[in-house]
Amino acid sequence: MQQTLKKSISFTGVCLHSGINTNVKVHPAPADTGIKFKRIDLKTSSKENIIDATVNNIVKSQLCTTVQNKFGNKVSTIEHLMSALHGLGIDNALIDIDSDEVPILDGSSKIFVNLIDEAGIKHLKSSRKILKIIRPIILGDKNAFIKALPAQSFSIDYTISYDHSLLNHQKLTLDSFEESIYRDLISNSRTFGFKEDVDMLLEKGLIKGGSLENAILIDEAGVMNDEELRYPDEFVRHKILDFIGDIFLLGKKVEGHFEIYCGGHNLTQEFLKTLLSDHSNWKLINEGPSDIDQRLIKPHTEISAAI
Ligand SMILES: [Zn+2]
To answer: What is the DSSP letter of 299?
Structure first.
């Protein structure tokens, strides 16, 4: 069945890119609401203030995920909060926010997870639909790609490769996706960046709120933060955290196996648009044991697109 929060949660913090201090309240919502943001700082009508967290509302942005409604109102850096909601099985929520960016907190989704755990989860009376991948889809090239395959559950095989000794090759496979796996293995991993990029990003007006309190910063010698890495492979864990947040823009849990090599927000967003662009890529099924349709997988036609 679909789920929402038992009661509202709230948090305040600085935003990674704008540097603005922002207040957020996540409220329970009825079945089939999905995840909606409400810009309570805007003086426009309530209709214009609401931004659905959906693939159709994705707009291009750097180093984060941004959704924007048809009235031009947007909210960015939603991925870690979306990841926590997806990871803990919250299908429906209305999120009041008083600026255009979600606070970064400690750079992971652990604080969101703790708040949701404290509030509790409410089971709703409507059944949950799952978006099932029904034929292979590949987006990207040998340098960075996402490959999705039909499967009986949601699983991820993620590899990153950077030109740095600390993270030149990290790989993690999640064979299944349960709340406990998300909570224990993924949610505590922080976002990261390279010192050599900081000046360039600041010139672009990004990471104004970035600090060693909310991101792992890496220089040639290694990690610059006083806090040690929370896991040796914290970097690939965070990439999975981001992917789990971004894929929730489908508005549904997903059945499929995802092999990702050097992914990122923009690649995932393009993948989601490609996936939905052709209805022969997917279908909606009821959550629960496999039905006979799941064995009727179409011939292996692969879709490739350069990015
Ligand atoms: Zn992230």
So the answer is: P
Question: Does residue 140 come out as left (phi exceeding 0), alpha (psi in the -120 to 50 range) or beta?
Answer: left
- Which H/E stretch holds residue 141? strand 137-141
Burial group, residue 47, by CB count within 10 angstroms (0-12, 13-18, 19+)? exposed
Query: Is there a contact between 245 and 83 (Cβ–Cβ < 8 Å)?
Result: yes
| Catalytic residue flag (residue 169) | no
Amino acid symbol at 177: F
279: its two tokens: 């209805």
Task: Specify burial of residue 268 (Cβ count, 10 A radius: 0-12, 13-18, 19+).
Answer: buried
CATH of 3-123, one of 2.60.40.1180, 3.40.109.10, 3.30.230.20, 3.10.350.10: 3.30.230.20
Kindly state the tokens that stand for 269: 């967003």
| Residue 79 alpha carbon to ligand 1 centre in Å | 7
For domain 129-295, give the CATH superfamily: lpxc deacetylase, domain 2 (3.30.1700.10)
For the chain, domain boundaries: 3-123, 129-295
Strand partners, 133: 282
pLDDT digits (tens, 9 = 90+) for 240-283: 999 999 999 999 999 999 999 999 999 999 999 999 999 999 99
Task: Please tell me which residue in 86, 257, 265, 279 is annotated as part of the active site.
Answer: 265
Note the pTM of the prediction, 2 decimals.
0.92
d(CA 207, CA 16): 5
Residue 171 structure tokens? 């790989």
Please identify every residue whose CB atom is under 5 Å from ligand 1, which is an ion: 191, 242
